[in-house]
Amino acid sequence: MYLQDLLPVSNSSPHFGFIELEFNTQIDFAIWVLIESGIQVSPFDLHPVETSLQNSLMKPEQWDEWLATLVAVFDPRWLCKVENFNSEIELELAQYQSFINNYSNEGKTISSLDWVAIRNHIEQRYAWKQLQYAQVTQEYGQQLVKTLSPITYWKHHDQTEIYLSQIWDRYHNNRHENLNINQIMGLSKNLCYFQQDTIKKFYLVNYPIFVQHQVSSTTTIVGICQSQEIDLQFLLQSLNLSVSKSNF
């Protein structure tokens, strides 16, 4: 908790959305499966095909369903659940007041605070969180339990499930760090945050060609090449364009 969180709340914009860049091994694995097996599913159909198991392994619509399920499991809006609207507001307000009292007791001087504006701001934020949670439950229904394996969310025949389990181990043993992804992860502060009412999540995945795929209203998957130098300025412009389009 920081003093700048309160000063000046009365002048702050009531926009509580945010943008996240993240690497998620389970979603990255789903893309890696396409490359490893030679399956091509648009827009991830730009990798070379050396050997294809497409006919015997999975259909494109099955892979799409699997990816959509993974995205649903990790949708950040599930974290917006408000158990008790009034109680949580009062608790947070009390924490701020205690913080200010301790700050004053240490002999530090602060400007006067508009506690009515602060309460209104907190209420607006919790109302926004309730809206996010209502949207995600309407979109997906019941929240699925997170597990450590993406194979859990595969819903089809046993042959594919066995294959995925085998290469899940190989994926972990052979996975190499993508320095381009690491570099991009530090650039989130350069994305446009202004007037952001929604949550936008970008998952960075290993893919030989730069590609963007919007999977849901909140989530976009971005393929990042590991072996080639990337144009960071172009990448940021592309991501910012995706965000700005979604806000209108």
Throw out a few tags for this protein:
248 residues, alpha/beta, 4-stranded mixed sheet, 4 strands
Which overall shape is indicated by the principal axes computed on the Cα atoms?
elongated
**For the largest beta sheet, what order do the strands appear in spatially?**
1-2-4-3
Q: Please report which band the strand proportion falls in: under 5%, 5-15%, 15-25%, 25-35%, 35-45% or over 45%.
A: 5-15%
Q: What structural class do the secondary elements suggest?
A: alpha/beta
How many strand segments? 4
Radius of gyration: 22 Å
Q: Low-confidence spans: pLDDT under 50, at least 5 residues?
A: none
The helicity comes to 40-55%
Euclidean distance between termini CA atoms: 33 Å
The helix/strand order is: EHHHHHHHEEEH
Average pLDDT over all residues: 84
Largest sheet: 4 strands, mixed
Total helices: the number is 8
What is this entry, summarized?
The chain has 248 residues and is α/β, with parallel strands linked by helices.
List the helices and strands and how they pair.
Blueprint: E1 18-22, H1 25-37, H2 54-57, H3 60-73, H4 85-105, H5 115-140, H6 158-174, H7 179-185, E2 199-206, E3 211-214, E4 219-224, H8 232-246
Parallel strand pairs: 1-2, 2-4
Antiparallel strand pairs: 3-4
Descriptive report:
- The chain is of the alpha/beta class and 248 residues long.
- The chain is built from 8 helices and 4 strands, in the order βαααααααβββα.
- It has helices at residues 25-37, 54-57, 60-73, 85-105, 115-140, 158-174, 179-185, 232-246; strands at residues 18-22, 199-206, 211-214, 219-224.
- It has a 4-stranded mixed β-sheet.
- A hairpin with a 4-residue loop joins strand 3 (211-214) and strand 4 (219-224).
- Helix 4 (85-105) runs antiparallel to helix 5 (115-140).
- The longest helix has 26 residues, at 115-140.
- It is elongated and about 70 Å long.
- The chain starts with 17 loop residues before the first strand and ends with a helix.
